[in-house]
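In the current project phase, we have settled on a layout for protein records. A sample record is reproduced below.
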Amino acid sequence: MNRRNILWSTVSALGAAFAASRAKAATAAAPSNKLKVVYHLSDADKVNFVLANIQNHIDGVGGPDHVTIALVIHGPALKAFHSAQANPDISKRIGDFSKDGVELAACGNTMKAQNITLTDLLPGFVSAEKGGVVRLAELQSQGYLYLRP
């Protein structure tokens, strides 16, 4: 074997080894293929529709382990989640979503306007302190897909 063939074989082997190590590193560092979705709810007449959409989404992908979902609520729709006014179906769905890891964010501005705190809402809610629309934008900047049914 002449020197050119030996050199070429060595360079090829090193290149293959480097490519294999890069592929392994890329696979190890690859972000999850888990879809991230944020649902936007402000219309009181769409509460049940949106909650059903979220449940269908979870069921459709094979369960909560296959999707990351956030629900951001502001405006008139938030009244449906006041613990004193929520109907049993909404209370159950919110409890299930909370167990499934759905982020339930209530607009801080709407909470002030409705003169309520997190303790007045169904369990599982967090406050979107800067506002619901700000939280929506933050989530979208983190790669969440935006849905407003």
